[in-house]
Amino acid sequence: MKTEILVIGGTGKTGRRVVEQLQNKGIEPRVGSRNASPSFDWDQKDTWIHALAGIEQMYVTYYPDLAVPGAKKSIESLTYLAKELGVKKMVLLSGKGEAEAEACEKIVMDSGLDYTIVRASWFNQNWSESFFLDPILSGEVALPMSDVLIPFVDANDIAEVAATVLLNDSYNGKIIEVTGPELITFKEIINIISKTSNRNLNFYDITLEQYIEGMKKMQIPNDVVWLIEYLFSHVLTNPKNQQVATDIEDVLGRKATTFLEYAKKTAKTGIWSQVKIK
Ligand SMILES: NC(=O)c1ccc[n+]([C@@H]2O[C@H](COP(=O)([O-])OP(=O)(O)OC[C@H]3O[C@@H](n4cnc5c(N)ncnc54)[C@H](OP(=O)(O)O)[C@@H]3O)[C@@H](O)[C@H]2O)c1
Q1: pLDDT tens-digit series, residues 151-199
Q2: Which residues make Cβ contacts (< 8 Å) with residue 5, sequence separation at least 6?
Q3: Which of 30, 50, 63 to mutate to test the pocket of ligand 1 (most atoms within 8 A of CB)?
Q4: Does the model's pTM come out above 0.90?
């Protein structure tokens, strides 16, 4: 089939899986990535026009997060360009309980394009493909807010929902909330990963201040520290984020993946067994 669907962030946690979902349906989408041809770079607007040329539907993930300064302007410019170029529909990946992300959603919703908003809670894959992996590998996990209840969601479920709504116009104009099927704490997660990966993980409950201090000592870049502090202080603690939604089941006709199911599958890949020397 012709490549009329663009997946921006098509090599990332959800985008890569959306590409696979579409390929399984016999559709070869265009991958939006700095390494693709044509390339797409959020920081180089002149790349956008080539990546969007001839596209009818697009799945948009912003990098690193819709909460960062500049994201709203970029989403505004991209949406405007998409409309100019005749794109018909945009599916935007957004974050649950993030005021900045909701401002980006509004731009898309008011654009006149057909749209579906996929509004996600924190991803399971943060533990295997993102910033929570390193502490797991070191065996020492120190996190604040260890008892906050979070409906962690699986990136495979998000991708299946995104691919479904991209291809089905009955979801136009809707906000689909994608969460896992249960509320779970960091403490419980570390227990599950310890058991499924057969590792002896130590968990330490620390304050947000200690967590930030630790990241600075590790010379993690300031903008990343800012984002993680923002996510913990504004997103994690937002009561809107501590609720389970049934939209995954409604769209896919099956239950959302539990953290235990994700952990069993992920442990088998060996990713959590590559122990780092401290
Ligand atoms: N993680 C969570 O728990 C969570 C929860 C709710 C919402 N979200 C939202 O999810 C979105 C991220 O989606 P994701 O996790 O699927 O993606 P991701 O894995 O964070 O993103 C990686 C993708 O971004 C691309 N990328 C990086 N820098 C880029 C640049 N300068 N220009 C163009 N592309 C660039 C990478 O492509 P190349 O390196 O190949 O160029 C890759 O495809 C964010 O907007 C965030 O707000 C995340």
Answers
A1: 999 999 999 999 999 999 999 999 999 999 999 999 999 999 999 999 9
A2: 22, 27, 29, 30, 55, 56, 57, 58, 59, 166
A3: 63
A4: yes
Q: Report CA(198)–ligand 1 centroid distance (Å).
A: 30
Structure tokens at 43: 């920081």
Q: What pLDDT does 87 receive?
A: 98
Q: What is the pLDDT of residues 49-93, one digit of tens each?
A: 999 999 999 999 999 999 999 999 999 999 999 999 999 999 999
The Å distance, Cα 117 to ligand 1 centre, comes to 16
- Exposure string of 91-112, with b = 16+ CB inside 10 Å and e = fewer, is bbbbbbbbebbbebbebbbebe
How many residues does this entry show for the chain? Answer: 278
Domain boundaries, the chain: 5-121+154-179+243-256
Give the residue whose CA is nearest to atom 3 of ligand 1: 122
Task: List residues bridging with 89 in a β-sheet.
Answer: 57, 114
42 ligand 1 Cβ < 6 A: yes
- CATH second-level architecture of 5-121+154-179+243-256? 3-Layer(aba) Sandwich (3.40)
